[in-house]
Write a structure and sequence with these properties.
heterodimer, A: 306 residues, two-stranded antiparallel ribbon, 3% strand, B: 305 residues, mainly alpha, 79% helix, 0% strand
Chain lengths: 306, 305
Amino acid sequence: MSDLLALLTQQTINGVYLGCLYVMVALGLTLIYGVLNQINFAHADFVTVGAFTAFFTATRLATRVLGMPDTAAYLLSLFFALGAGALLGWLVSAAVFAPLRRRGSDELRPLIATIGVSVLLENGQLWLFGPVPYQFDSPLARETIRVGRIFFSAQSALVVAVSLAAIAALYAFMRFTFIGKALRAVAQDRETAGLMGINENLVIALTIVIASALAGMAGALLGPVVVLTPFTGASLIVKAFAIVIIGGFGNMEGTIIAGLLVGIIEAFTVQYLGSGIIDLVVFAMLLAMLVIRPTGLIAERKEENV
Amino acid sequence: MKSRFALFLIVIAIIAGLPWLITTPYWRGILVLCAMNVLLAMSLNLVLGYTGQLNLGQSAFFAIGAYVSTILIKTYGWNFWVAALAAVIAAGFLGLALAAFAARLRGHYLAIASLGFAVITYQVLLNWEDVTEGVRGIYGILPPVPNTVALFYLVAGIAAAVYLLLDNLVRSPIGDTLRAIREDEVSAASLGVNAAIWKAFAFGLGAGIAGLAGAFYPGFVGTLVPDAFGIIESFTMMAMVIVGGMGTMIGPVIGAVVLTFLPELLRGFGELRLMIYGLALTLVVLFMPGGMVQAWVSLKNRLRA
């Protein structure tokens, strides 16, 4: 294999792995937008909460209290993070989205209210955990897998495997289960779905819980590979928005494609232009997309209500 | 009309008397900060409260005002007032540019586009080191007047003037036009309102006022670093507008005063201050959508009944 080809493959693999993490976060945003037409601005902060939950589970609870081996402890922490995300999602759904929906409020108030939740979560964690970055050692991040001249860590293989599994499970859930069908019905037309006997409030709450659980688990996957601070998730939120817009709000397939695309572009930007301007490149893409094709890569068939 | 004028004189008298009541240098500094926050809250309120456009990028205009004026003074030796004027114009033009760009965008899309604008501005300040010094920052910036009390009178006087200007603006037919766009853009357009132009007007004027506040900020703090203008600054302005009562003139002023002094009274550390802002933002939207102004009106009605 030539040097260039090896380099391209290496960066594409890095990009796919980053992209999988982004997809896990952005999918939740797009799911919520699909059924509710609302943005949960605190979504990416659930990622941070998931990461800290996993950190304390893996390095304290599972290893020191339960005496589990490192790898098993880390795998267990994934589920604790998933649970933490789900719990937060339920809280935000019950305390913020449901009351505002009952009052029939406009599209901006829930966004402003969740910005408040985001500021509260970030600074609450800053108060609890301090600004010094945490070193989250996953046993898998230390193991390197080598295929020919391509290197990647066991952690990144796990990230790709878990996100693929999560995306496949979500897809199967939406396609083949009754609740998934109800969810899609609410996304298409909330009122008519309600008339058909679907409990729309339950479906909406469930969607937010699933989306937030994904975010929590993304945090556990992300924790060992980034600098873990209370603002880890916040640095993701704008990128997640960019992905959701590039993919088309509420469009699952578009979000998956856009997430992988942004991951790969980011990997090549780091290689050729330096890591300082990643955000600039991603946002230039976002703004260009808003001008050229605001409906996203895959155009939505839904008509705008005027 | 006469009683409004009398009320305005009373407020001016109170502002003039404040530095005699508050004598420690620390609290006098908080007074200056408060006057700046009042300016910023009013600037966002014009766009968010009166025109109904969720602009999450207001911190960018504040940043541009601060950097343009400081660089013109430090590098090119401009006079402060000319540089401040240039800051207003630069921020105003960028506000117009963002509005022109976002003319077709509404609601969530506008919110995210303006957020992206703020992030890009922050990244440019951080990375364009030849001009902005990046993370190293610019040091030794002098205020336009020699002491804190004079600076307070200056910024508070400007805030009062801007209040009068905006108060007359929102009472004029232009104010009706902006409110019509806020309530229903499509209906307003069907009545012959050119929504894109008036939204751009609100964005441009709001950005200019934020730029003006930005011109005073570096001299007050003495240093200038990009981290002073993160997204969180847009959110603190939003908290002031929402807590006070958006879409009213006095609401954001009260919100700015309360949210500047309350965390100080609670001996706030940084994270505690922002936790209060976040909590206040969520609770007010949930339980008191009209902010403190609405709470005051309903309290008055209850006492009367």
